[in-house]
Amino acid sequence: MSISAAKLSISTPVLTMFPGVSADWEIDATIEDVATIAESADRLGYHHLTCSEHIALPAGERGRRGTRYWDPLATFGYLAARTHRIRLATNVLVLGYHHPLEIAKRYGTLDRISNGRLVLGVGVGSLKEEFDLIGAPFEDRGPRGDDALRALRAALSSPEPAYRGEFYSFGGMVVDPSAVQEHLPIWVGGRTLRSLRRAVTLADGWAPFSVSLEQAREWLGRFDIPPGFEVILGAPGRLAPLEEPDRARHLIDEALEHGATRVGVTLAHTSLQHYLEGLQALAEL
């Protein structure tokens, strides 16, 4: 199976640092370093880059989730001005932390700034301490998230949105600017079968995390996947396209064979220059 750079996305370094995955150079890296990566991925034809959302994490989560999460709205606003084609995907925005019209206004503005390159990756969240911190309801986050997805579809590309649902209702309000994409892609993240059901029913794609390729394929087989539905699966393990090109190709092929329409890649790297060289080598495979 051939690999196209258009099918690949990058799990952006620096913006999020995970224990055992991130490299030491990322600790003191700057927004200019991130922009250099984004510009390179843009030039090489990668489909999207990512930025995740957390407001504040319990110190006890440091060893499992890490603690660095750059804010996606501020970060993507800057990267939008430094790139031209690559899409900007929140991976993920936590629905319960925001009113749907707040998302529609802020990220609709970002879609306009980026000339229609936003992908809104969302999830219902799982960190109760963070919900409690901001006073957001936790126990009903699933049905509340489903209602938020319906409200977002009604609101994202409409300057005068109207919606009436179980948790959110609005009308007679103007949201200007709104998204420039007539149908802004919404992908659902998560690590459960419920997240896939939510994605197939209410969104345009599924971007799971901590789900094995075998499990993802088995779950995908339970649904009638609609045409154009995106499945974003990570290549298993860190890729070293400079040192092990055949293995990198094999791992990407493996993700595609398990149902991915887009493959998220995490590169092994020891410096910014090493990362950039890896991006180039992977695109040339």
From TrEMBL:
Keywords: Flavoprotein, FMN, Monooxygenase, Oxidoreductase. The keyword rRNA-binding does not apply. Pfam families: Bac_luciferase. This is LLM class F420-dependent oxidoreductase. It comes from the Bacteria. Residues 29-224 form the Luciferase-like domain. Signal peptide: none annotated.
